[in-house]
Predict the 3D structure of the following.
Amino acid sequence: MQNKFVKKIIALTLALSFITPCVSIATSSDFIWSSDERSLQVSSTVTDDSSSSNSLNLECGGAVLIEQNSGKVLYDHNMHEQLRPASVTKVMTILLIMEALDSGRISFDTPIPCSENASSMGGSQIWLDVKETLTVHEMLKAICVVSANDCTVAMAEYLAGSEEAFVAQMNEKARSLGMNDTTFKNCHGIDEDGHITSAYDIALMSRELLTKHPKITEYTTIWMDSLRDGKSELVNTNKLIRNYRGATGLKTGSTSVALYNLSSSATRDGLSLIAVIMKAPTTKVRFSEATKLLDYGFTNYSYKEFGKTGDVVQSLVVNKGVSSYVDAVLENSCGALVKKGEDKNLVQNISLDDSISAPVYKGQKLGEVTYSINGEIVGSSNILASEDVKKISLWNMTTYLYDYWYRLIR
């Protein structure tokens, strides 16, 4: 009796499965984005005529403010002026150390020896002894917090065999990042003829470090710490770490010739900024000018998140599939930098296929979504199928119904 009943159900289902459902699916939709929606990444074209006129009256040789995710320049004051970077040079050194960590060439526990050359370095240092070794973790702490020249050279020699070879790698990396104003002569930043860069180039390498190696902020945000079992005290040379809300780093630098430099970074409410000050007359001025730039950015801009990878945009009906629906999801996280107040003009446009027929494959492109402000596209993402949906066949439908009724009557 049960077998006859199941056979009738199978026959009825198969007959119905080949009748295409009458479903209307919108091919596009426009609406103003509400303030409670979620999201992430993609750059925006933001311009401000005042950004290149030094409207903030900065007292320095060069400066720039960029948004970290997109690299968009928000304020520019002589940002391509070639100047001496002093210890801000170490941003590139740290970047290469982090790349070596990522590649597995070294680990945070790798012991680093100290050469006679490294121990003889002047300027900021922790007085390394040729008889001692420190781990990469300890070296990074000393470099990021107190700008230790001896540790910087020891790391360079370990990674490349010599400081000269390491500096060649620094210049190669600079070229790959588009740092066209830059020539490195050493890895620490002590004044040397021809050792030059610009505020813009410092922003480029700072962005690369922060976006590709966010773990570095575990070191650049240390205010006070110690080495050698508490015998060597460390206090951060970057006073903004203690005094500026949301500060994430990054590196100070000063010499009698370069004067006072700073690459500063901060994040608030999802907006990450990098402010670079070069050739400020005093240490107090470099911090106050960096504060001006960061305040300018946080006051005038916000980072609007649109959607995260895997967010469901819409559930689509699937014709002749073993499942009636499939979730259409965002391929990428996306968002944009916007001027405050303009986010109310944000429009989302969704384009999807009119009809979806099985088979559907996970990751299959179903459409795309774009976001625009005042007619200008500021972000986009493909829309993909979240899972496979097989086409109905006699075998899989019989199996499906058998499993379904077995679970029902069990």
Observations:
- The chain has eleven helices and 18 strands.
- Residues 210 and 216 are 7 Å apart (CA to CA).
- Residues 1-47 have pLDDT under 50 and may be disordered.
